[in-house]
Write the structure tokens for this entry.
Amino acid sequence: MDWWQTHQNQFDFSHRWRHGHPLNKDRLLVEIRHPCVIYQKRQLVHLELSIRYQTDFRFEPDWFIEKQLSALPAAHADTV
């Protein structure tokens, strides 16, 4: 609570934040690429990208990791 009282004025409350960073498509793509991300997290990030940026890019969280990673550049292009 002390930390929050000291630092809350540094945050722009009109933006969503995750892990201390503004949440945007680049941050979501970083999260989904993380080598330790679990299946449920990949599902949530995929849904968030699809809903927030209103695109249905070809990505399935249960694909092999290599196929997922090859699909992400197209996801980035679709969300720009």
